[in-house]
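note to self — DONT lose this again. spent like an hour looking for the file last time. sequence + predicted structure for the chain T wanted, 799 res
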Amino acid sequence: MKATTSLAPVTPQAAQCSHEPAQPLRQIKPRAYRRYQELPIFGSIVEDFARWCLGRGFSVKTISMQLDSLRRLVPWFRRRGKRSIKDVTADDIAEARSFYRRRKWWLAAGMRELGDLLRGQGRLKPGRPLAPPTRPEAELARYAAHLHKDCRLAESTIQRHCFCVRWFLKVLRANPGDAAFRELEIGQIDSFLRRVAHHYSRRTMPLVVGTLRKFLRFEFTQGVLREPLHLRLESVRIYREEQLPHPLPWSELQKLLRIMDRSTPQRLRDFTMLLLAASYGLRRSEVAALTLDHIDWRARILRLPQPKTGNVLTLPLTDEVANALVDYLQRGRPATTDRHLFFRGRPPAGPLGAKGLAKCLRRAVRATGVKIETTSFHALRHAFALRLLTEGTALKHISEVLGHRSFNTTSAYLRLDVEDLRQVALAVPKPVKIHRSAGPACGLACSGRRSRRSGPVTAPASKGFRSFLARPMREFLALHRALGRKYHGQEWVLRNLDFFLAQHHVTARFFTAGMFEGWVADQAAVSPTVRSHWMRFVRKFCLYLARTVPKTFIPDPRTFPKEQPYQAPCLISERDVARLLAATHRPKPLRTPEHPLRPKTMRIAVLLLYCCGLRRAELLGLRLKDIDTERHLLRIDQSKFNKTRLVPLSPTVSNELQRYLQLRRDYQTPMDPSAPLLWSGRPNRLAGALSPTGLRFNWQQICRYAGVLNHRGYPPRLHDLRHSFAIAVLQRTYDAGKDPQATLPRLARYLGHVAFQFTHHYLQFTEPLRHAADARFRRSFAHLFAAPVASKSTKGGAR
């Protein structure tokens, strides 16, 4: 139902203006207007109703349909004993709308406008007196008053808090003030959180836990609860920059704005809003809040209120934006006394909200046919930040323009600058020849070496938990997974403990110190560092168990084995990597009839680990759908700390990857998007993905053949390639004479770190780096320490 161009002004106050017909009902219903004036119940207000709908911006056809809804609903109201408009109450309007909303929606729409008219005229009687509030509702009202008065929360936030608390009390089946609520236990709250986790995402669960914590704190301070349960609630594990922002190329955005149609007021309005968001990186709430008072034409500035932060951002008014605003004010904005800048195109007329504004980019993409991956309005803000970065704007200035208080907030918008990160990627090392006598070991002579682990470890149960702690273990894992933790390795530790208890303590009922010490003694073959981590996790489970079983033994962390220092990485040079690449084709165990591409697979694995600095799990988790051959990058999904990032490839590595994919097609290996990049040749095992054990075994064979071993004569770890990548990038920066401080933020984003201080773990001060840093220091500051050379005239004068 679209409004026509001959509508009256868009506000009800403007409905009394001279442009509106004196008798709108006669023009809308020229033949039957008398029948509508004589309608029972609604005849006295039908003229005002037609004038009201005109003022709300409805078309003549829509108003005619709404008048028909009044005529059709007369029997419905008469059956309920209504004789005049004075007998109609708010409950009657609400009941009619609720009854016809799913049956005949146009009748419900007419009731909505009728209720707004009567409410605006002050003629709508209140409904039946409300029943006395129940005890939960009374407590909710008291809690809402506390949030409004003491916490100064917004009305929408208070409604969200009350919704969650109402759900909690309904599941709990206890009223605040009762003995059952006073004796509330932490296990009941955990049960509610496990139930809620099925309805909310990980990003929403912190809001639920925060709401419960605030409510429980309020009840404890009021003396309703006996124990401070808010201090015992577990936190939700959410990491920064988990999800990747939506990419929106600036060239495609410029093309979209250039070819947009501006012939109609609505399309001109959409163009102006998109231009404002793209030119200043505005949020949709900021665009919706703009009024005529925020534009200073004389000073040529925009004073933009930020509803999210409450600040006012002052930005210059560019010529392009000023011309677009003038064009919109002349041809697109409706005539109204309202000071808002943008209005709805459909009735009821009024200012455009943030939800309606979010769809303008989708409409523009659909109308122009420009291929853009995302239609999220917030993607315009990311595109604006990336454009400033590519133009060389300092991060401080980008943060000021976006209205951020911290640089860390701005860094989240810069993760999509693929071309800026591509300069971090390493190229394929130059090929070299392998001489078998060059290394300390050759061939497969070292294949019989035993690992450091000398004894077996207790195997966990294969099917479920079987000990007397089976139920608490399942509940513990379910709770923490509901709070955002994966706990895959931790589940293995609990299964290990459960297997031990099921074997040696069948009739036990409480977890004792002897059980813990016996389990620790059974893990003597594990390194002290790993054993200490396992013991700390079991202690965390014991603390959870002690909340309901006070007799549970709590281990003392001071008795845990001391963690060993981190093993220094074995840095692999570029020449050694070239030897490893050449060695992928030599060892016979790599090439088998069932998998003739295994040498090529291991070559591409070594290249991605060294040239891109990937983790082992990230490499094994790559699927063909994660490879963008057009943009030459990899998409790493759900990596460590649940982070997703884009990893651009150097041209040489991209060529190697494309050749490998072509070989996969030639050998007719699985090429569906979900197929793994590292194919093991066994399609019936884990969808054909290469296992971590298989990758490590093949890596060790290659290292031994190439003679690339550490100082102890063992093959280096796969993770050492990540360390070597970081050192190689820093070494290249020094050799090129560039500032390493400018490379560190890029290197951190490339490796998937939140901040570059976490990247220092991978930066070892090697001898080549020391020489490179010394040479750079001499080039930059040696002239400051040089002794001044006296001139001949000065020497002669001294004589």
